[in-house]
Amino acid sequence: MTDWGLRAKRSGKARALATSALVFLAVAMTSPDMAMAQNYQFSQLKIEGNERIEPATIIKYAGIGRNEALSAGGLNDAYQRLQASGLFESVELVPQGSTLVIRVQEYPTVSIVNFEGNKKLKDDFLAGIVQTQSRRVYSPATVEADAARIVEAYAQGGRMAARVDPKIIRRDGNRVDVAFEIKEGKVTEVERVSFTGNRAYSDRRLRRELSTKQAGLLRAFIQSDTYIAERVELDRQMLTEFYRSRGYVDAQVTGVSSELANARDGVFMTFNIREGQQFRFGNITTISTVPELDAAEFDKLAKIRTGATYSPVAVDYAVTRMEELALRKGADFIRVEPRVTRNDRDQTLDIEFAITKGPRVFVERIDIEGNNTTLDKVIRRQFRAVEGDPFNPREIRASAERIRALGLFSSADVNTRPGSASDQVVVDVNVAEQPTGSLAFGASYGVESGIGFNINYQESNFLGRGQYISLSFGSGTDTKNYGFTFVEPSFLDRNLRAGLKTWYRTSEYSNADYNTKAAGITPSLEFPISDNGRLGLRYTLERDTLTDVDDDSSQLLKDEAMIEDGSLWKSSIGYSYTYDTRTTGLDPRFGWYFEFGQDFYGIGGDYQGIKTTALLRAQRKIMQEEVTLRFDLEGGAIHSFGDYDTRILERFRSSGIMRGFESNGFGPRDMDVANEDALGGLYYAVARAEAEFPLGLPSEYNLAGAVFADVGSLWGLENTDGGRIDDGLNLRAVVGASVLWNSPIGPLRLDFTKALKKEDYDREQNFDLTVSTRF
């Protein structure tokens, strides 16, 4: 094995100069008169040394014709053209009287291309990125470029220490083998991420916004600590958006310094930040230059409070609401322009929303490319505008965001270009599809529930229609679950989310002397009714069975098991209203969620009643957004009609209501029997408060702590067996602390609790460990 190819390349320029000198020397030696002449003529062209390349091809590259007047400079140009063709290892032009001899040595043919030393990148992948191929002419320049391409491929995977040394092996018949000797090196990790210029937020807080993480003790598991240059620009954008969404309108990431360690196995990154001052909203006004549109009517749609922290999202929402109102009024080509007046003295921004007539431009057509599997209509229905509608740039940008939010594409670019006329535009949509199906095997563990396993298959782009299907099976210590879910996100090509859910569950409780079975089906329909609000409608048909009640259980349970042999059909219609600002709210530091739902039983079936549940959840980030406060208020009530009393299968049970108790650990309980089974209740109410905070460890460890307190109760029965069962509203109070770890195998939570107020018959659980994973 030799470095012949590399040596040939390095000596290329010297050989060119020597050959040019040889040309002129040969001319001078052959004919002194010719050396002094201005023009030369060759009546014959003789080609020597060629094996594969036809003489006519060589003459064509040389660009010399017989009996053509030729200067000494022209002769040198012919040599340069032959050399630049990349076909010849060496070229000589030797004048011999009226004959010009073109003597060439062809580059050999590549016989085999090998990759040696590569483990992380396979041969097939490397063969696809190099241009050196078998049965093609060998080129030193191409081989050098291929070595650089391989190095770049490793760098994109975080191995900046990779080295590639191309080797050439001479074979008979003017053939060579090309071998790329690869030293992959170690992954180049991000050793440290630091910031300069940040005053409002700490380094630790800013690191949480980056996709790039520091390497730490768990570097073998944390993949985001690998240095990837392409990720730096994304991190810059994320930091800028983080600041500007919090009122820092002048915030900039002025530069990112990435220093490579001497061993090329580590990078030290520094983000240079210019924060500027935080601004708040000043005066909010609306004007209209369109006579038929009243500014006062639009002004109330701004919904921006003077004094609130400035947010560009709030301005965008206001503009969107105003333009939608103009469309509903039948006014086309309306533009709402937010005009900002900056007041540096009091650090406020006055916003004037100007309603004006925009240019009369129409959407000529929407062209979609890149969707090999996904149907065009899945993408097209994300546009509120169709061909022939007035063109609205803001709506096109919003459509692009909706396409990206589908989760079906790794990238989605939406651009516009001039159409066939001055008042026409064409919207180009270019998408790159990504895998949308998965088969997951999972495991979970709970101190009480034990080890559980599950299998789940899901596809979020079924048959390219954007539909979601899921098949699941789960098995735990006490339960088995089977389920099927189907969702059509645009039912009847409208903003209607149609779903179908079926399930079958069996339970054999270790802490209760009865078993249950449940099977059912629920078709549903959900649609938006406001910016953050959605309404869902559903019908449920299910059959529940209570079995294997022990003889020494409560008489209440034994009576319930006798009703229709423990099996009842239940048919209900229901609705749920949700309002969520946690991800779409104007202030990223605060959000709240509200849910209210009711199910009405008795549309057929064996049970008649109403089940009502409500949940209010608020979240607030404080102390540079490093501490998250959460507060929940939740409750429910069941009311039965007629002479029918609820069974334990209809009543609320304590599982999931409060921490610090076992499943079926509190609530009404029959203490006069040996089993002391929990009986559930008709009502429950609970208040939960939690504060989550960092533990002072590097953010890449994904460790956090929490303290919490729960206060609530579960109460109420129609039948208390003559007053022997205590179903009163007895408050319980629990405090606790948690360790939260988003571990490489899944989210893990350790809870340590202490009940401050409880009943003597309640069953505490002072420690709980839960973890779930998919693999």
From TrEMBL:
Record-linked PROSITE patterns: POTRA
Keyword Cytoplasm applies: no
Location in the cell: Cell outer membrane; Membrane
Cellular-component GO terms for this entry: cell outer membrane
Oligomer and partners: Part of the Bam complex.
InterPro entries: Bac_surfAg_D15, BamA/TamA_POTRA, D15-like, OM_assembly_BamA, POTRA
Residues spanning the signal sequence: 1-37
PANTHER family in the cross-refs: OUTER MEMBRANE PROTEIN ASSEMBLY FACTOR BAMA, SORTING AND ASSEMBLY MACHINERY SAMM50 PROTEIN FAMILY MEMBER
Chief place of localization: membrane
Domain named POTRA: residues: 40-107, 108-185, 361-434
Originating species: Pseudothioclava arenosa
Designated name of the protein: Outer membrane protein assembly factor BamA
Keywords associated with the record: Cell outer membrane, Membrane, Repeat, Signal, Transmembrane, Transmembrane beta strand
The protein's role, per its UniProt record: Part of the outer membrane protein assembly complex, which is involved in assembly and insertion of beta-barrel proteins into the outer membrane.
Single GO biological process annotation from the record: Gram-negative-bacterium-type cell outer membrane assembly
